[in-house]
Amino acid sequence: MTIHSFHPPVRTLMGPGPSDVHPRILGALARPTIGHLDPLFVGMMDEMKTLLQYAFKTKNELTLSVSAPGSAGMETAFVNLVEPGDTVIVCQNGVFGGRMKENVERCGATPVMVQDDWGMPVDPQKVEDALKANPAAKLVAFVHAETSTGAQSDAKTISHLAHAHGALVIADAVTSLGGSELEVDGWGIDAIYSGSQKCLSCTPGLSPVSFSEHAVERIKSRKTKVQSWFLDLNLVMSYWGGGTKRAYHHTAPINALYGLHEALVILQEEGLENSWKRHYNLHLALKAGFEAMGLALIVPEAARLPQLNTIAIPEGVDEALVRSILLNRYNLEIGAGLGALAGKVWRVGLMGHSATPKNVLFCLAAMEAVLTELNAPIQCGVAVQAAQKIIVEKGY
Ligand SMILES: *Cc1c(COP(=O)(O)O)cnc(C)c1O
Asked: How far apart are CA 196 and CA 49, in angstroms?
């Protein structure tokens, strides 16, 4: 049997990630591969650090892109900052907090869980109570933007509470970076990781990370070796550290890094704050459309993520059938519910290059058409108008 080249269709990606990749990024990926120690490539890595510092709003020297997806960024934060026997406070209000717990346990440390309902933000009062009850806790870990539920937590308050009790902070910003307000230095986040494929609209497989001076001190004064050779930042820094003495650690994913560089250049051209604003304004338009249709967002308004909209599925609707018609007939991908929310919600992403007025109208029109076809109890003929009103009001 002859296997032919793989030619994927052109989809519109409005799920929990990946998001639509900007054509400029796809172009950058196809540029000639050069060596990972080529002086020109090393120069691009230096620019990448500056661009990441801009996106994270930080001056942290230890800012780089881990050569693996967001999950590896998560693991980088935990394996470098946690030692066997440590106590770590882990906030869980969705899928990704559960993965943080796994990481802590696999580092030989003890997680103290702070639980909140799925769809709700982390409750800072519970974090403070846990810090008081566990004075030995060395770290507080939380997810800034819970992609599994669409809830955004108050990273600034949680970071201040942790520092007041002598603990450092690990924040998951996989879905927040570039899509909603985030200030690493201003909020005092010690270790942060993100992903290339959500609001940066790059291809998946890279994880930007940044570590504060306090975090670096903690890593340097470890009593035990980091158990992961690949993610040990002491070793990774011999390559990413800058200066002239770069040494081989692993072969960087050269072309993938061209893509991330281009994604960050695009972000800088738009302006970080403008990107946050675009995500927010288009979320308002999408929300107006869903609400006009009679569909409800499950996250309380004050904690809603603009880039991930969680919609309750109307009574009696086969949610998987809706997603499959959207995908097969309209080339539109939206996400299913996960964990506690499986079968109860759709997750509609508005991330990066996917967050456009065109996609908002397309998604609303397609969902309305399919729900009407399946006799779902929704209002017809009003969603697009409601969204259009906001799009015009906001000047797009
Ligand atoms: C997507 C995501 C991850 C995992 O990133 P991968 O690139 O899939 O490994 C981690 N945390 C959050 C909040 C995410 O949305």
From this structure: 14
